[in-house]
Design brief:
Number of strands: 8
Strand content: 5-15%
Distance between the termini: 27 Å
Order of helices and strands: HEHHEEEEHHEHHHEEHH
Structural class: alpha+beta
Strand order of the largest sheet: 2-5-7-8
Helix content: 55-70%
Radius of gyration: 38 Å
Largest sheet: 4 strands, antiparallel
CATH class of one domain: Mainly Alpha
Number of helices: 10
Length: 428
């Protein structure tokens, strides 16, 4: 109950924040705020929370089966004028009517206690599945956030290059008019500028698609305007890749491992449950009958108390077969845990390698980008002074674009590697 109250208060706080942001017309979000917002509003997380509530109700359903059960019924019988002969006398049987109430209490059932343990284990597993759903949504939201920033950075770089090309194209047209340059030179630069314009428009469409993906993760309407308040440089400064690489990996903090451990516990309990099917069940009962309309020879008592014992004796090997099946399922669950353990340990090594490699590649691509920028600026100055051709300019510009693109891709690789490792380490 306390847990539900805390969740309710959190929902009110986040909803109030979302309302105030929506009232302003724009959602302003950092990466952390986006992940928190998604956890509170994503429909898949909501469903996972509902599953937890359902599991809690299911546990109470199992527990209540061992608590007192009360039932009542009212009956009416009419003999339709029938009479019976007894000792030479005709005795009419009048209508009868009874009200009966019965209380039953389970006294012993091995399967009942095993069932409670299984239900509580299922409840814990459902909560773990909810945490896994939150982690998945955080991962997807962070990835969508980074994808938008990378696409916007790429667009801004290309836009700046387009401005430079258009300036060179104007200078070339002036040189053509005074007879210093050929029209072919101007046309080549124009073609490159037009190509870059089309690329920028394509990136703009991709940015909108990325925003729609982020809106989906956030659980907001498609027309909600979102403003990302962090830049790539901000995030690159905040992210401490070396600390992330040095962080320990606790295998048993992984939700997939926890779920498989829960499956092993359930499989163990299923074996116990099948064994318990061969033990007797004992229940006590009390019955009270109020005779609304009595028959002539009614000799049944109004109050009855008793015990009922169900003793399984022989089932032709059915219970043994079920027990063996449960043991097989237990072994399969243990094998699945071994498989996921080996897989996660390999994944940890690979993700750490990916991050280290991405960081090294980013440093090299940044240096290559800076060199390409200096070369382009040098060729541009030479072209303006007539000591370089338009082909030199377009070649230098192509090299610069490629270097800038490689740098942006390397930055995205770093963010992707960080995000994947954070998810594995459960530090998002």
């Amino acid at each position: 109950m306390k847990h539900q109250i805390v969740i309710f208060i959190m929902l009110l706080v986040v909803s109030g924040k979302a309302f105030s942001q929506a009232g302003a017309g724009v959602l302003h979000l950092t990466v952390r705020e986006a992940k928190d917002f998604a956890v509170q509003n994503n429909k898949s997380v909501w469903n996972a929370g509902l599953s937890v509530s359902e599991a809690q109700k299911r546990t109470w359903e199992v527990i209540s089966a061992g608590l007192p059960q009360v039932s009542a019924n009212v009956s009416y019988q009419n003999m339709m004028g029938f009479s019976m002969s007894f000792a030479g006398m005709e005795i009419a049987l009048p209508p009868t009517s009874n009200f009966q109430a019965q209380v039953t209490q389970l006294l012993f059932s091995a399967g009942y206690w095993v069932g409670i343990k299984m239900s509580k284990t299922g409840e814990v597993m459902t909560e773990t599945a909810r945490l896994q759903a939150e982690l998945d949504v955080k991962h997807q939201t962070q990835s969508a956030y980074y994808a938008i920033l990378v696409a916007q950075e790429n667009r801004d770089i290309l836009t700046q290059n387009l401005v430079n090309l258009e300036a060179i194209a104007k200078t070339t047209e002036d040189l053509v008019r005074i007879g210093v340059a050929e029209q072919t030179d101007a046309d080549q630069i124009k073609v490159q500028a037009l190509t870059m314009t089309n690329v920028i428009k394509s990136i703009e469409r991709n940015i909108e698609l990325a925003y729609n993906l982020l809106r989906f993760q956030l659980g907001v309407d498609g027309d909600t305007e979102i403003m990302l308040t962090q830049t790539l440089n901000d995030l690159m400064a905040v992210k401490n890749s070396n600390a992330l690489l040095a962080a320990d990996f606790n295998l048993y903090d992984n939700y997939n491992v926890q779920l498989l451990e829960g499956q092993i516990d359930l499989a163990n309990m299923q074996v116990s449950l099948e064994k318990a099917a061969g033990l007797p069940n004992v229940a006590a009962f009390y019955s009270y009958t109020y005779k609304i309309a009595r028959s002539t020879f009614d000799m049944s008592p109004n109050n009855v108390i008793g015990l009922q014992v169900n003793i399984p004796i022989f089932a032709s090997g059915q219970r043994h077969a079920r027990t063996q099946q449960a043991k097989i399922n237990l072994k399969k669950a243990q094998n699945n845990l071994d498989l996921i353990t080996e897989s996660l340990l390999l994944q940890e090594k690979q993700l750490r390698f990916n991050l280290s490699s991405a960081i090294e590649t980013l440093a090299m691509q940044k240096e290559a980008k800076d060199v390409a920028q200096r070369v382009f600026e040098s060729i541009t100055r030479k072209y303006q002074h007539g000591t370089a051709s338009s082909l030199d300019v377009t070649t230098a510009n192509t090299s610069l674009l490629q270097a800038q693109g490689n740098y942006i891709n390397a930055m995205m690789d770093v963010f992707t590697a960080q995000t994947e490792l954070e998810k594995l380490l459960n530090t998002m």
